[in-house]
Amino acid sequence: MLCLYGQAPGRVNIIGEHVDYNDGFIMPFAIDKTTKVHIRESRGEKYIISSSGFEEKAFQPVEIKKSGDWTDYVKGAIFFLTREFNMNIPPVELHIESTVPLGAGLSSSAAIEVATLMAINGYMGLEMEEERIYRLAQQIENDFVGVKCGIMDQFISVMGKAGKAVFLDTMTMEHQYVDLKLESSGFFIIDSNVKHALGDGEYNKRREECESALKKLNKSSFREISIDELEENKKHLTPEEYKRSLHVLTENERVLACRQALEKGWESKAGEILLQSHESLRDHYEVSCGEIDYLVEAFIKMEKVNGARIMGGGFGGSLIVLADKTLCREDLEGVAAEYKERYKVDFELYSVTPSEGAVFVE
What we know:
The protein is an alpha+beta fold. It has two domains: about 5-180 and about 355-360, Ribosomal Protein S5, domain 2 (2-Layer Sandwich), CATH 3.30.230; about 185-350, GHMP kinase, C-terminal domain (Alpha-Beta Plaits). It is built from ten helices and 13 strands. The chain starts with a strand and ends with a strand.
């Protein structure tokens, strides 16, 4: 086994959904599920990328180009460091191991991007600063992989801290660590195991609708608009533009309220805010789906559950649930059976703990 590696965690976002590309507030934390990228000198003159269960890929330094599979997250790091930053990275072997579930909305892509950068950074002694690493990881996702994501996933994968969430203002990039005073509750992820094909196109469409709304309102940011001003100018917007804008503005308010609730230990209140966020994502941003709505409605009826909402890009994926720490699969057997009968698929339950961000290990 290779002894040098970069390690980066996945993430969950407590609240602040679809606002990281709208100058909004978000409150994610890094989780105790990580990706490791082991690195060593190559056996030959090619870069070699490998991972258990996947075919090994080898390519010449001059052949770095997008291939449309998971290796793009690794290739993108080499591409930008060599082409954009003029760094001479000799051929290396990169072996990937991960405990971040794929497709569960826990940001496995950011974890591999950041872990790869951490591996190369440490191996070559580049001494890149934290901000450079998370911004370069976002550039890999945006400009090499081709997904126009915001900064949240890569930022928290680098900047996470054990036992804390991070309150981030995505307009100024100022951040504070938030103590989660939860005596009896913890955070859980429910992976619905559904992902509707319209998701990627609709995600980009939501971004376009927000940009169009700002243009019609003659504003450069939603931070320049109050809810009252939005209502006064509703007639200038399409129904979709109005609803998207309303979600952004009210979600920012919910993030502030949820931060206070978590810092005060108001577990029930925090749960109520999560549910309000889901309702807005369902009705105003329109990124939920029948399977997710069913699960949210089923869970919030349970005595152990404080609140739940859809998390991530939408149209399937995962829920984040604030519930009693003793919540386990046995508590969910009735919901699981009904879910399987309705949708012909099982869901997965994960407990997640706020954890440290990326590191390089020698």
